[in-house]
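Support request, please re-run this one:
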Amino acid sequence: MSSQFKNPEFRARLGEVIGNERPFIWAKRMGISSGGFSRIWNEGTIPGPEILIRIAKLNYVSIDWLLIGRGFMIEPEGQADIIRDIVCEIEKVFQKESLSLPPEKKAELVSMLIEEIRNGEISFQELTNKVVRLARFAS
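Re-run finished. Output below.
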């Protein structure tokens, strides 16, 4: 049995992961060749394990959910990773830009960014620019 087959449900879940970003730009950021992504996106081909793992890890999604739709899109462990990475990114940006916010404002910023990532409004890769804009606005 081939591991590659037409699967509209997989493509729909992948669309949720991609969110508002242009699919082929997203694929390039993920390190997926345009030909490979065309087969995934336009033909419903399931990518190989290396690409599946990369997509899941870089986008904080459950590989079970991504591949077969089982469980939650973002597992509790993934949520902890998102929080850790957002807090680290905020601190890096604040140090680099010499910005400061009171702890309660930072907590609001973290909460807002988590929701935006969960809802597919921004990708983690877009986070730095968003943090800079919001931190400047809030401070």
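The mean pLDDT is 84. The longest helix spans residues 76-97.
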